[in-house]
Amino acid sequence: MSTNWQRRAATRPKAVEAVTLVLLLAVTAPGVFATRAVMPETPDLWPGIILSAVACGALRWRRDRPLQVLAVTLLCTMGQGVLGYLLTPLLMGPLLVAQYSTSVRTSRRTTWNSALTAAAGLIVAGLILPSFHGSLILALVNPAAWVLLSAVFGSYVRVRREYAVARAEHADREREEEARHRVFQERMRIARELHDVVAHHLTLADAQAGTAAHLSRSDPGKAFEIIARLPDSTAAALRELKATVGLLRTDTDPADDLAPAPGLRQLSALVDACSAAGLEVSITTEGQPHRLTPVLDVTAYRILQEALTNVSKYAATRTAQVRLGYTGRYLTLSVTNDTTPDRPVAALRSGGGYGLLGMRERATAVGGTFHAGRRPQGGFEVACALPLDRHDESIAT
After folding, report:
1. pLDDT tens digit sequence for 262-279
2. Which tens digits make up the pLDDT trace of 75-84?
3. 42-81: b or e for each residue (b if 16 or more CB lie within 10 Å)?
4. For residues 61 and 45, what is the distance between their CA atoms, to the nearest angstrom?
5. Residue 342: how many CA atoms within 13 Å on its side-chain side?
6. Domain end residue (candidates: 219, 248, 277)
7. 40 and 125 inside one domain
8. Which range marks the domain in which residue 38 is found?
9. Which of 167, 197, 232 lies at the terminal end of a domain, its last residue?
10. How many whole angstroms from its chain centre is CA 157?
11. Statement to judge: residues 277 and 361 lie in one domain
């Protein structure tokens, strides 16, 4: 059941966002009632509810405009404090979420400038209300501490994501170095085989020709017998040379350093390569395509490449379906294949193998979500939702 919900969440980011904001509002509302329960002079109920709803609604744009959303939620929270509401972590929920989102998506300097500004605003709101002057912890320390704690947690997540991106880039460089090392070793092996072919067969043929010339007068019969065996030696040399040199004609050379990074533009070439290997791939695109940033473009391509590779190696059927969905803020990808229930595939286990781990790390590194697992109707599915950068532009049609 949980796997099914994860799969639906990965393919329906808008619904997940709406449910999250509604749940946050439901958690924030008890903070309004808590003030009426503990304060001798209770403020009106509806102003606090309305300000909480406005703050939660503003969180819809926290990924595109984190600083503006933080300002709106801060003003709403300060307004609640001025009206006499007790600034508990429940009531400050939208502000804490906005501060966390700002810390994750902005620089270190911007994070702490915004956090200190928000803390100062809450302190000012606490000083304005006389009801809390008897308790500095409730009026000043408690709200500021929660905002700073949210900033610390967001900064930690941002550092972890940057580290994950750096680790993925380092792993890519190591794989490239390993590939070049293997190409070098393979060429050395081919060079040794070429040397053996030349040293053995051609030297033998040269010796046979010399012996035949030497015996041509003294023993013509023996000389003709040696000459008759000479084509066998040269034919064997030609066969081995052809087999060895044929290995050099494969495309093992590394790509030109000036070549562009792979992206969804090369998706058709990837599909053609899969077709050549016997895997039929169908592609469905939904929504208006966007011009992606280089990081997001190569991330989407690598995830699709690895998913189709897994289908080619492990799936029971030879077909796969690729779906690309463009929304206002997300790029959703899914790769599915239909395997029959009576032919289980050991490799189709959610979370197993380095391929699934690599795809999950790539999606997480750009702030996206990832899911891989069996489908209830049979088969296997890889699905992820990658957030579009606010500078991405729609491709004009």
Report:
1. 788 888 887 877 775 567
2. 988 888 888 7
3. ebeeeebbebbbebbebbeebbeebeebbbbbbbbbbbbb
4. 27
5. 0
6. 248
7. yes
8. 2-167
9. 167
10. 16
11. yes
